[in-house]
Amino acid sequence: MSYIELNNIRKVFRKDDRETLAIDNISLSVDKEELVSILGPSGCGKTTILRMIAGLTDPTSGEVLVDGETVDGPGSDRGMVFQDFALFPWRSVRKNVEFGLEVKGISKKDITERVDRYLNLVGLENFADARVHELSGGMKQRVGIARAMVNGPKVVLMDEPFGALDAQTRNIMQAGLIRILEKTDQTIVFVTHSVDEALYLSDRIVILTKRPAKIKEIIEIPWPRPRDRASPEFTALRKRILTELEKENVMN
Amino acid sequence: MFGYTYDAENKWHRFGKLILVTAVSLTTLVYIWWILAIIIDTPAVPTPDLVWAAFNKLFAEGDIQTGLSMWEHMFASLKRFIGGFVLAFVIAVPLGLLIGYSKFLDEFTRPMIEFLKPIAPIAWAPVFIFATTLTLGPILVVFVGIFFPLLYNTIFGVKKIDPNLIDAARTLGANNGQVFYKVMLPCTTPFIMNGMRIGFGIGWMCIVAAEMIAPLGGGLGYFISLQSVLSNWPYVFVGLGVISVLGILTTGLVDYAYRTIAKRMGME
Questions:
Q1: Do A86 and B175 touch (CB under 8 A)?
Q2: Shortest CA distance from B268: residue in chain A
Q3: Residues of chain B positioned with their CB less than 8 A from the CB of A88
Q4: Which residues of A touch B264 (CB under 8 A)?
Q5: Which structural domains are found in chain A, ordered by start?
Q6: Strand A18-31 and strand A2-15: pairing?
Q7: What is the mean pLDDT of each run of 10 residues along chain B (268 residues)?
Q8: ipTM
Q9: Global confidence as pTM
């Protein structure tokens, strides 16, 4: 049963008199509790696809369905994690995580309870009252993840969430995300340009072509998590995907 | 030399240095003034000792002409200043938020604002005083002085909002009203404070100037213009000093508030 469905999505961007076809007829379905990565050359429209599921951008034609309902504008059932964190700098860590519950009008006591649980989940219980600018990049994105998940969304959309972090922090965050998934069974659509990251995290990897984006290939990753990045099958598959992506290199 | 080394990392050392430098600087200013007063040798530039005597007399008794003490002149000016500021704030901030938000309003109001902005606020004084009253006129001059920097900074602040923050709020379930109150307003606050910081400096100059034109109910500008006509130059100099100190206090207050907020938001 497909939980998220993209049916014949096309997106045309118009600037002055020029029209650019960004996404050319993409159809994709994501199952419940699945983690699907979207991988493709930079500027190919990965983020646009994510924003269309979020309801922040409308498709030019085609439709997006989440849990059987057509997406029409953003809503708290589709949480989003941003590459540049997009945290509210005037709010403390706790207040950032509270935001979604606060706008829903949930009682103060229930908010505190839920927020505590999610701060624990991302390991920030000791930084609840810290200000955002006092945190490291990795900690900031943990706030971003907790903030998106505390609402109990049907899907969390992650837009290159670890792209702004250094290599070591990235690996730590990826392992952390897997630990969170063991506890929550969250459905996730994950945009990345790192083959390694996609292989380490995903149930399936969707590889896009260069602009206008079409689906080039969908690869199932059957291995259990956590995965060994140095295992022969991991390296072999990484090599194969990198070769595929090389053909889509926009510089050629 | 004194068995004491300055340590730039020590808060108290830095504070002590600041006090010392300030004291020496101001003392130097007094001496320059004193020497100039002796060289120029005119009653319009009295020596510091005469001004000090006038200072004590004015704060204790006041001047004979208006019957008001210096405190009362200060409060008269401050009252008008605050009136003009409040008026500017309640109009410029909501208007700036709207203009920053709406592309149409921005394009529509820009020519008007650009046309009105270069007019020195004090140039409006005769018009305002004649059109309204001697009480309201000076307040309106302050209003104009504070209005434009506040409006400009508010519009600028709205335009500087990171669109990702609005997207984040919307994916967290915020409706348009909540996006406005919980994201746009706090994002714009440091810019509004910056507008106030600039506006306070201009507004304070405006009130003194306007009072020189609209003599009613005391005030520092009125006091200076009256005493200069009567050639009470030491009194005039006390007035100048009080204007400076009050200006430092008013702008210092809003400057402090601005820095506190900017720091909380990680802007510094």
A1: no
A2: A133
A3: 165, 168, 183, 186
A4: 90, 131
A5: 1-77+155-161+186-252 (3.40.50.300)
A6: antiparallel
A7: 74 91 96 94 92 91 86 92 96 95 94 93 91 89 95 95 95 94 92 93 91 83 92 94 93 89 73
A8: 0.92
A9: 0.83
